[in-house]
Amino acid sequence: MSNGTDFKKLVQMDSELNQIHDFDILLERILFEARKVVNADAGSIYVRVPPEEDKDGLERIAIKYSQNDTIQKTIPPGQKMVYSVFTLPINEKSISGYCALKRALINIPDMYNIPPDAPYTFHSTFDMMTGYKTTSTMTIPLVSDTKLMGVIQVINAKDENEQVITFSPDDELILTHFANNASMVLQRSYITRMMILRMIKMSELRDPKETGTHVNRVAGYATDIYDRYAYHKNVPRAEKEKFRDIFKISTMLHDVGKVAISDTILKKPARFTPDEYRIMQNHTIYGASLFNDLSSSLDVVSKEIALTHHENWDGTGYPGWVDPVTSKIERADENGNALGRRGEEIPLSGRIVAVADVYDALCSKRVYKDPWTDDDVLSEMHKLSGTKFDPDLIDVFFEILPSIKQTKEQYPEGVI
């Protein structure tokens, strides 16, 4: 491939990355494109965890995504590879930690023959567990305006015959250029994520249940459910990627309308009375009323989710057919009450978030309940298929349960 062709591809990638808004989806795409630009079989991407977010007060990097084409080929189509979630101290002991510490590219031709005087070592646990052999690696920091954003590690460069080779000096130049541009885009997306999390923090000040970890988990579950659903429906890749980016951000804002509910109700250390529950239901209308720019895809999807994520498949949910701008009932029963949306009257976005939100609520501690056991949670999700939940989405939920559990592990309580 000529240098001119490489440059054109890099420019195109830069343009595509700039169109992605969600931080996590951008990380996943950056890793994919980094591997593609140097023809790497596998790789991982890490993000910096500041000391104030670490339980031991250390500066670390945490793995966010791992990709491996060889292993992916052994998994049923449409399924995602499940990988271990872990953090590494930013120090000289690991290759990625050393890269983050020194902010320098590290190109290792053979991981099983690292020079004995190198400060870092290679832990072959993954290789031993999977039978995969890690040979060549290149690790590079993601730095924007002197701020460390994370680290990319690409694994096993391949030639045109699919044989593993070392990463070349040209690969180093290409990946360095890519990482520099990706870091700037990542910084912009990080700022967007922090602004959203600050909005969530405002909600948390009102409602102790509305935490950053809760919204990150729900958004993660919902995006994974959508990915699998889109695979089954043969949604074109470009359409899927565009929607999932908007969907991920919108899902994080699903309960933002709770800021309009009284503290007496939000912070009540017990179950609601029927009257309190009716007032609480209005958070869906208040939330939807915040998103009024119909020319913005983000506002449209955010409004759908805020309004409909408590609707039930059988029509027994809330708030039903109510205009969130005027609060007027659009469709009423014989008693004048709003009819609930049912089945596919509920937007797909709302149906998916309903599954993700209830699953997380059942798994979480509340003032009026302890977390349910895994068996009890899964039994309840099964039981609610066809009444509370879209049956097709519950089938998808159980298909991707390993990914759901991985997201749950990534965002334990107290870690944003």
**H-E order:** HHEEHEHEHEEEHHHHHHHHHHH
Q: What is the count of helical runs?
A: 16
Count of DSSP E strands?
7
The quaternary state of the protein chains shown equals: single chain
The overall average pLDDT, rounded, is: 90
What amount of the residues lies in strands?
5-15%
**Coarse morphology:** elongated
DSSP helix fraction: 40-55%
The major β-sheet equals: 7 strands, antiparallel
N- and C-termini, Cα separation? 42 Å
Which structural category do the helix and sheet elements fall into?
alpha+beta
Gyration radius over CA: 23 Å
Poorly predicted residue ranges: 1-5
Keywords summarizing the entry:
alpha+beta, 7-stranded antiparallel β-sheet, 7 strands, disordered N terminus
Report on this model:
This protein is an alpha+beta fold. The protein is built from 16 helices and seven strands. Strands 1, 2, 3, 4, 5, 6 and 7 form a seven-stranded antiparallel sheet that branches. Helix 1 packs antiparallel against helix 2 and helix 12 crosses helix 13 (348-363).
Secondary structure layout plus pairing:
Layout: H1 3-18, H2 23-37, E1 40-49, E2 60-68, H3 69-72, E3 87-89, H4 95-102, E4 106-108, H5 125-130, E5 137-144, E6 147-158, E7 164-165, H6 169-206, H7 212-232, H8 237-252, H9 263-266, H10 274-280, H11 283-288, H12 297-308, H13 348-363, H14 374-383, H15 391-399, H16 401-410
Helix pairs in contact: 1-2, 1-6, 2-6, 7-8, 7-13, 7-16, 8-12, 12-13, 13-14
